[in-house]
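=== Structure Prediction Worksheet ===
Name of assembly: unnamed complex
Input type: mixed (protein and possibly other molecules)
Chain count: two
Listed entries:
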Amino acid sequence: MYLILLLISAFIIRVVDPTMPFFTADEARIAYRGYTLSTRLEDEMGRKLPLIFNSLDDYQLPAVSYLVDLGEFLFGRGDFGARITFILIGVLLVYIIYKCTEFITPNNLIRLLASSILAFSPILIFMSKIPNEPLISATIYSLLFYLLTKPNVNKVLVLLSMCLLVLVSKDNWLILPLFALLTCYFYSKDDTLKNRITLVSASVIISALTFSIFLFIPQSQRSLAENNFNLFLDQSILNGINQLRGEGIKAGWPLYIERIFFNKTQYIVVGLINWLSHIQLSTLFSQFDQSNRFGFPSLGAVSKTSILPFIIGVFYLFSRGERKDRLLLLYIPVLTLPAVLLSKINLKLVITTLPFVVLITTYGFKKMSRKLLYIFLILMILETSLNALNFFSASKNSSTTRPLWVRDIIIESSLLSDDQSVAISDDIAEDVYPYYAWFANNSSKEPLNISFPYKVRQTNLQNIAIIGGETKFIKCDNHKQMAFVSKKALDRYNNESKDYKNVSELKIITTYTGQTRREVVYKVTGDICIDY
Amino acid sequence: MHRLLNGQLLLFAFIIILSALLRFYQLNKFPLQLNLDEISQLYESKSIVETQKDIYGNHLPVVFPLFGVYTPGHYIYITSVFYRIFGDKEIIIRIPAALMGSLTVIAVYFFVYQLTKNWKIATTSAFVIALTPSEIFYSRKSFEYMIGHFFVYLGMGLLIKYTSFYKKSNLLSLMGMFFLGLAMYTYTAHAVLVPMIVTAFMVVYKSANKLLLIPFILIITPLIYLVFTNPDLRIRANSIFITQDPTLGDRLVQINLNNPFLNQFYTYVEIISHIFNRYLSQFDLNYLFVSGLDLTNQNLVGSGPLYLIQLPLILFGIYYLFKKRNFLNQKRFITAVILMSMIPASITFEKFSPHRSVFAFSIISIISSFGLYKFISMFRMKLLGLGVITCAFLLNIVYVAHLYIVNFPNEKSETMHYPLKQVALYIWSEYDNFEKILIDPRFGQTYPSRASGIHYYVAYYGKYPPKKFQSEYKTDDLGIYFDKFTIRDIDWRENKDQALKKTLIVVSPWAIQIDKVDKNKLIKQFNFYDGQPAYYAIKL
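=== Predicted Assembly ===
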């Protein structure tokens, strides 16, 4: 009964206002892709049912896009359709964790409390409302954990989960075999040795096979180097080594001494520290993401109040837990292991660990008195309510990454473009093209003739011209140019006007303000046109 | 201490000598030169000894205004004692911190011994503290924190010793409370931390007499009185409080719920939340082990306040701490102290302020020493364990020493206000050749910051009598004036400063385009340590 209530609460909190948070450019791209896949069986670039998708950062694996496609197929194009699959996955994760806690304690209050941490986790609520990889990974790893640790392992379901997992994110190709090894070989020894070896081997084969196939794709190595092994591309490390070494040589120290102190082993140190930084309390319980991509500022991955039971859980497992229980602590380093090859924190990996953070917290709950548990419950409800009430104020801080105000501009400029040419600055958002596609169905009509587009940006929006840094301006022929420009572009536009005689000043028709009430975009008209 | 016999005594003596050596060796050369804090405190000490007033004419002030930074005066008064003993030497400003930093090793031994009753662990802790980068770094830069740092360890040790007797000694507890109370006078961070330590002690050690709080409160009463009555101290506290953080300020501006009560409520919630976030971020591994000491400008290559080798040892240490039997109170107390030790840095406006967390680093270092002890005792062949760990430590030590001696001056000479000493010496050498000397306070390698205490450099290196300085010193919105010196922004236009006659102008590259200046007028160039121009001396 209480579980159902919890799941309903988790669903409601995720489904309230399906327009929030506003999509980033990449999420808008995926949302639009979901629409094209559900209606035309092709992606936003006109390719028939592809397995590898384009984005401005990396290749995208198929799971996320096809899940969005499913939502939009069932519920139609729109915010709700694009988000519903993830809302349901977010609720499913709560249920799976409730099931997983049965291995730790039969106490229903503790199990409900543990599940409620995920149900009301600010970041997981946030992630349940946008198309993303880590939520799916976290859910499948939790499911795998449950399936592999319960007495009768359902091999078909396990294999299916593994197959799905490798189609979610490249990181899983490394994590999955280790996860399977840790779970089947060390954590859960209930099954026969043969079965355990079979399952671990299957995970290795599935990962290796996917990886091998991926290597045949053009630019796959570039994709891996830029996104999964970027530690070795980080010039600041190399520059640091050379700079410090140079200073030593200048000061008269022998070169070989300098080489001993400053050499490429620094990469190992940076990678190692970066990996361990994924397990920090500050990331989990306080400031998860400052960029607002995965949540609003000052929100932790899980509620701040759960830090206490988590720490108790860690210390309990560390000092008094049984060997098997103690192994639970290893899941967090295993799930974040790909970070050893990165130079900066990858928050997606941290999100994947959250179910296991909760399982560790469950041990903390076990050590707390009933009275303390109720106090914790009250505090968590209070914290969640405070966060919910402050949601809209907090969302203002995401004005740059999640520019809610862009929608009106996109729709208005698109409508205007039916009758006349319209120009828009490329710096009003990270990438305006996906917003045109998603909000105005305004996209390139010609399919892209590249099999595996990597970081490709489409700019053909018919009557809408993009004003970039190198766009040239000319005097208009008997008409006026309508443009939506940022402050920077407005200044440039004005400067260009001065080069022509008999050109009237630009007229600002409308000024748009962002979430923070700062002026962000100006709708202007004038005698200076874009040189197409 | 009574157990320190023969070999133990030798080992302990070696650690103290090592500690003193690392803190005193070439103290006048590293750091490169006296920075603004040091030179101002040194000249104020001189002023106090010679006139019993600070340079602004305040008679024996409790808080010194210095160059707009209100600083408690104990360090200046302690330096005055050394000034009387050793005379007017630059190094005396660094002696108190280096001395107390060296003595902290003894206090740490005493504290850990009382905590564990194991001389081996206590010696290991003293050894690790003697080598800890943050301890050495801050002991060598005349940092007033180090005085209180010593007292905190001594006070905690005395209080724990007091609890270990069946028949409690009131003298020990009084001494413990006295030293802890004394520490609160030395630095704001201690004033925040010590009451929490005392509370934790009272909560954990239930056998401690609660009446002990009375002498403690009595000791700190004058401080509380000062905080409420001295506006300078309040200005100082407000200027560093977390609400001055622009990131928080931006967020507070966004709170707009159309209800004044709710707005106020959320403002407090946001501030508390920000403090919590900042508190947890103080345990950032990159900060603790890679970049926290800020010795280089290379974000990912540098040194933290702790050696990298201490990272696994800390984990060992925690394991040891939680596995150790009959250690419940000690375990609780030290855990509470670790958790509280980062609070002072968490309530200030800077994201990371390592100078407010030196105690936290040292207590974490002590945990690593538990780990080191455990690690060595794990080896059947103790010598092998010792050899392995010695090599690892040695590599870390030499690496950090290299960063400190070679790279730090190159990368951070600006933070040491290099070459203001050279500038001051030069303008005094030219003193008789000019009627007026103008100095530009703009200063910086990457952006123009303001060296707001240049008058201290000029006065100190010119051996300018403090009494004369007190009478000559004038200031207004534009700058500072004394003798024939003017310290203000240079306006390098033809009808402005360029038109001056018989004037020496010391100007930073941020104020002029040097290629447009007549080469005959450019008489000297002062560079930062890495060779970038810092100042030009131009004669008019």
